[in-house]
Amino acid sequence: MTTTAQAGGSWVEGSDASGFGIENLPYGVFSRPGELPRVGVAIGAYVLDLAGLASAGLIDDRRWFASGSLNAFMVAGRAAWDACRARLTVLLADGADAELRERTRAHLVPLGEAELLRPFEVADYVDFYSSEHHATNVGRMFRPGGQALQPNWKRLPVAYHGRAGTVYPSGTPIVRPCGQRRPSEPGGEPTFGPSLRLDGEVEVGFVAGVPSAPGRGVPTGAFRDHVFGFVLVNDWSARDLQTWEAQPLGPFLAKSFATSISPWVVPVAALEAARTAPPRQDPEPMPYLRCDEPWGLDLTLELLINGQVASRPPFASMYWTSPQQLAHATVNGAPLRTGDLFASGTVSGPERGQRGCLLELSWNGEEPVVLPDGAKRLFLEDGDTVTIRATAPGTAGGTISLGEVTGTIHPAQHP
Amino acid sequence: MTTTAQAGGSWVEGSDASGFGIENLPYGVFSRPGELPRVGVAIGAYVLDLAGLASAGLIDDRRWFASGSLNAFMVAGRAAWDACRARLTVLLADGADAELRERTRAHLVPLGEAELLRPFEVADYVDFYSSEHHATNVGRMFRPGGQALQPNWKRLPVAYHGRAGTVYPSGTPIVRPCGQRRPSEPGGEPTFGPSLRLDGEVEVGFVAGVPSAPGRGVPTGAFRDHVFGFVLVNDWSARDLQTWEAQPLGPFLAKSFATSISPWVVPVAALEAARTAPPRQDPEPMPYLRCDEPWGLDLTLELLINGQVASRPPFASMYWTSPQQLAHATVNGAPLRTGDLFASGTVSGPERGQRGCLLELSWNGEEPVVLPDGAKRLFLEDGDTVTIRATAPGTAGGTISLGEVTGTIHPAQHP
Q1: Pick from A71, A90, A116: which residue ends a domain?
Q2: Does B377 share its domain with B255?
């Protein structure tokens, strides 16, 4: 099917240069007024209705697509994913025969008529901490004079479990959380109220489709057999809650109020051309973390605040790769479930303009970030809209888009 | 209905003195060979088949009971829970009329014929750290010379999210996890292999039935409107993995391999007589953590290793109560979902014989615990069976049992 795509683009008008061309074909869930949610694929300015295609006998379907989530299709496995992608490529390619083309066209829904929903039901949600630049910056801020990276950091991909029940689709309003805020000085009294240091974090996540058996890990070489695709993630964070609550068991309320994900799940197969060598790992990882293939991903990310680019974090700079994260998370025998979401941790590069959150951009609230339009921010204000978007090289030499995840800060409700 | 129970016991033979008398009536899910799982209630040495009772028209049912989980009934809410409990009390009371009694008896299944399953589907799993004695012991072990309790500990109930997908029913074999084990000295190399410091933790959990709206917390006074009941929890822990991985984001693989819960969910209403004043809280908690009613619970817990009592942790000594934990976990606007499980953290009392895990009992592996039969343990060995059981005062002056949660350690599987 890659051959088909390389031979040309798609007959869908404007799709080739849209980032949602035939090289991409990400899956999502959409609804139209008065209709039940169903699975679709983005192509140009349209959603291709897979439930409709299946009803018309144009694609194979085993009750995968007339569903409000991708989970049924995600559990079907790599052979089903590959076959569906190959078939969609045939239907959408420039070379498709005229009758097939017209029958397919009948199931294109303009994006403007579709509401994009959360694409899958999240089982467990794990958040890593895999950017060396991010972890180093945080270490320098919070442990001045100490080692920037803790001794375990280059030995294993540090992670924690987050709250699956508050993973929301892009566009969900983000209500500023209340909680106990750190004392202004050591030994002082905490205060209660709306977070005064609200932040977002640029992350990339992958979602498991095929479960794994309890007691058996998922080796790095089996990544493609279990993982369905990638989404963009905004790991909203209340820094004043976090620094107060997180000892000794890690972040809790500072993160659990909301995590946003992008509507389109980009298949692993669409990211083949984005794969690149990750940074050299020294010391050499333990055997269970070694990976024969390069699994860095050359994604170009952007963090926007009110439409202004605040930074451009380079995902290829991530120290730990996705297969290493998955191998680590399962090496203790914990099984995967369909819908398990694994986020990368904040993506930050070595330059100031590559930092993936306001905590780093404003250096813990000390130096305002100046946006291109002159606006300044230490942390997020009510009304601010935060958007993360990303592109990657496509398999046929074009560019594919991972779409965007966005959210607007609403004032605190409590008490 | 309490009046009915106080007037006497149940006609079910032997139930009054069993801990599973008419004052208790905990819910679970069971199956018999060749039959689908369904909801039942423990009474004496029987499970009362609620799906059967409903089919016979003896209790109200809205597709709550012919199910492999309690979730459908849990979401029905307090009025439904109270009505069901009242009706079961009528059916099972000594004074029940003869015809009703015989029609009910037809749905008693001997426990020996029933396999008890995981009682509910876990949505998110949160683990607290609410025993002052436990937190103090851990602080003394790992921060000698420092403050035993960290500054946030008496201000908020510290907690983290655990892995919902590895919450297993009692009796599930516990395979010793592999992972990176802490270096033997600071700056040394970690090693990979089976955990050498495997532990269990005596905990008590509560499970949410009725969801809450995003953005609105669950005040302490609304606890009964959302929480369905209590279970026993063993929070299995690999200490050598934990001390290495947990900085700065908390425990991950050291806990995520397995958490076991007891099969019977004891309704909140059954624990009315167990409610007691919790320890005095100083400093006074913030308003959102204040509670008008006493919510300490006088549960008598036992930790057994291979049938030998290793300790008797007193749950009434917990510093933070269940309604405070729930109010805290939702004060940031995170909504509750049906099946959200909140565990207390290790329960430890002030005496050595009241410590709820081997980490404390052996003082970080330095002083062997000597069991009544002379066996010694620093941590768990392959083949060890760990059981947690508990009783509480019943509403009619008797004793109710929370049953038990048990698990046997199997050797590591991984290379």
Answers
A1: A116
A2: yes
